[in-house]
Amino acid sequence: MSFNPLKEKGLPFEKQLRNWHQIVAKPYKKQKVDCYTRTRQILMNGIEVESWGFKHQFNRFMTEIDDKDRANISRIGRIENQQQMTCNWLCPQDQSVLETTLGYEQVAVDLTAWLAQNEPDKYVKETFDFGLLEDFDHLYRYAQYAYMREGIEPNDIVQGQTDVIIGRPTQHHHNCNGLRLRKHYDKTTTSPQTKVNILTVLSGEQQTHNFYAEHGFMYGDHVLRETYAEIKDVEEEHVTMYESLIDPSESMFEKLLLHEFTEVCNYYTCLEDEVDEEIKKYWEIFLDMELEHLKIAADIFKKYEKRDPEEVIGSEIIIPCRFQSQKAYVQKILEKEINKRLAPNGEYYNSMDEIPEDWASYKVQEKVSEISAPSENCINVVKFYHDRDIVVASENLKNKEVTLLEKGLQKRASADNTVTPDMLQSMIDKHEKRKEEKNKII
Ligand SMILES: [Fe+2]
Ligand SMILES: [Fe+2]
Ligand SMILES: [Fe+2]
Ligand SMILES: [Fe+2]
Asked: Domain boundaries in the chain?
């Protein structure tokens, strides 16, 4: 059945304000929740934060709008704020910062992989694949700490749906921000799907950045604090990268329309996929609210731009966040593109051996890692607890870890504390030997 969001009836705006009991929902149980319910909860918080923040920017900067419409945008912003609280606070108080962090990186991996496979624009797809391998490595680095500090096995959070193994090493994600800037799409020719895909991943990445900014200090361990700082800084680059794909000449009215449409599409997908009956009720009511926001945004767009909203968002729903296991796709990209880097002209991608000596990102990497790279220390430290790194993957992929590291590691601008392929191999050998010894005792 076709679903045209512009033709669907939403919840009347005067019924959207809720009381505190309704706003603060009952959290899920971390031991029972489906990992993809958690990823939906994390993503929708990010979507709401973006939608709320955008409305404030809109009202701060826009002069060509009358008082009635400005007031309406402000009223919708209040509703986004209430939705954000509901989404974010579904998270239970006993879910640790590291557990939630693994959830954030699982969002990034499985969402970006879904988007890459459902992205009609080849260049945008390539950018998704590029970002994907970086968040994939973040998941691995945090998993080391989750194990060391809190005894959390990766599968306690990712539930066997997402592999946890080395990706493009985090110390090589630090670039000159100028190089992170991508070519933007053309608003007149690009499909609504591309626009929604980008705004969805951008909202997720921005919230990941904010979460690390607000929680990385909550551990006393200095190396872990530094790891949060390092990865947070990469998320800043991800925000820079994904937002630069957006045509900056879109009007604020167009952007308002796209924000509401993106919310509709994401709640629609959540509602279709949700397995938790209690949480599903929120996706349903929030979808109804967003259909009304979209209608108001479409009316404002028509009034000021004198154009048909379908020119921007089309007439069909888009599925931007279908969470499902993406192991096969991620492994394919990992093996093919772990050695990819941002090209010096700031538009394309190169393999590592095509990068010139004066590549602007070398300077950034040499500076930030001049003492050491915290993300490398994750492995250096976990080996004392576990002989080798914490990895969850098929035997086939596990057997390729050292080769992957060889392919992904740069010769230049690597930190002094880098775990080399030889070091990793010897950790693995030691671990295997210990396993044999342990088996003999048992
Ligand atoms: Fe919203
Ligand atoms: Fe990440
Ligand atoms: Fe990211
Ligand atoms: Fe909205």
From this structure: 13-330
